[in-house]
Amino acid sequence: MTPTSTLYADAPARHVFFSPARIWAIATNTLLDLIRQKVFYFLLIFAVLAIGISPFINQFNFQDQFQFLKDMCLGAMSIFTWLLSVLATAMLLPKDIEDRTLYTILAKPVPRFEYLLGKFLGIMLLLFISLLLMSVIFVITLYGREQFALADTMRYYANAPADVLQAQLKSIHDASFTISLIPGILIIFVKGSIFASLTLLISTFASSMIFTIMVSVACNFIGHLQAIARDVWLSPGTAGPLARSFLALVALVFPDLQLFNLVDDIVAGNTISLILFTKTAALGALYTCIYLLLAYFIFAAKEL
Amino acid sequence: MSAISIKNLSKVFPIPFRRERIVAVRNLSLEVQPGQVYGLLGPNGSGKSTTMKIVLGLVTPSAGSTQIFGRDSRMVESREEVGFLPENPYFYKFLTGQETLHFFGKICGLHGAKLRDRASELLALVGLENARDRRLSGYSKGMLQRIGLAQALILQPRLLVLDEPTAGVDPAGSRQIRDLIVDFKNRGITVLFCSHLLGQVQQICDRVGILHEGVLVREGRLDELISIDNQTELTLENATPEVLAQIHSLLASSNARIIKERQPQSTLEDYFLDVTSPKK
To answer: Does the model's pTM come out above 0.95?
Structure first.
């Protein structure tokens, strides 16, 4: 060990109440942690699913092949994003508490809301990169299949009139990747952010990681039934006062996840209006903000 | 202004779903002056860690107040001048030593060349220059404690809070950490130090407080607390048998009596380090 002379020479920097740089440092560190835990290996499973399915769908016509591929890939993207948002978020706080890293961070001039926001942003970065990479694999797979279909069609319709060939080629283009898929992918991201914030909220008071995951998974199921609970709650005379109170609780606390099932419509070829997309995304952002705010209130009062 | 000021501090932890509660700290008052090394001692469960956590704003007091250099320790700003090393720290195992210091520097508002220079300086200070690019998962216990000390120093603190800094560390590592604490003291840094190794506390602390079941049972300057008023210790060098005989005869003619007479011994720690340290 060697002594130094300049270590304590400078005056410390003044504390800033809100520092995006601090939040970014915690967010990138969270992302680095997850990357070095090799979470992106799941992409291999996704790639195998997307590419490996090809031999099994060759018996369908091209339109059905594209339909099946889009259905499967967007479904897998949705499930993987949900899994990542729940599992990766559930381990953040318990791990930092167990390793006492949380003490070391919060014993520095770091406000608790910045710590939470940094952790959440780290998960958002993870979800964004994962979705981007899955989208790239999805588009490449779709493009490869489209090229194969185009070549096959040109060979099959080699002697057909040009307008017939062009109509066939256009139908293949239309059935392949279209810009309307992008809102569907973005909504998957929004849904991931809801689950990440909800899981973060649960982990602020949960006693273990397993409990956090279980409750978050239960919230997913309840969230898909929320609309039913809300309808019954709002229809007078359909239930007793106790049941109505319970239904009101479900309707107010849990997100209505049915509203975020736009992917099915998009895959079916329906175009989602900009207004519907904006409303859905804004609702997702609202849910996320509410859950983050609740998480902060609980975490701020938490005895470490 | 005191480095740490604790006034009438109490902390009660309610037990969920039961009417019982645990009193971790009971009406504790103490002051740590700037530049002191203060040893907070006590058996397990005596309230040492809770007191430290309250000082650092990690736990809210049930009653009383704590201040760091005059600022309420519940305020985030009070932690600007504090470095903390928790007991058995693990940090982020996936980071290297250098990345760890960069991370803690960034959350303290450092960046660029200043951060890189500070990290390099601290790695040199704690003797981890050669392990800077190694992940913490491959660090030994002693190395983890030393990187912990380095991160505690990243923001040029005037106060260091160290919770069992040498727990589980081998004698050589323990000596290095002790020497570092002495170095901090020489630089004017206040140290609040919590340890079960009483020999080490005795070597480096100016003042100690002893907690038992949440109550501060003794507090004061170490030399005052443990000195035996009616006894005097002499250590002679090159004393011949004649000189010793004269001393004995002088003592025989007075009321004083010799309680113990023996050749001074080195400590086992010094002997161990002498045997195991690499020969130059």
So the answer is: no
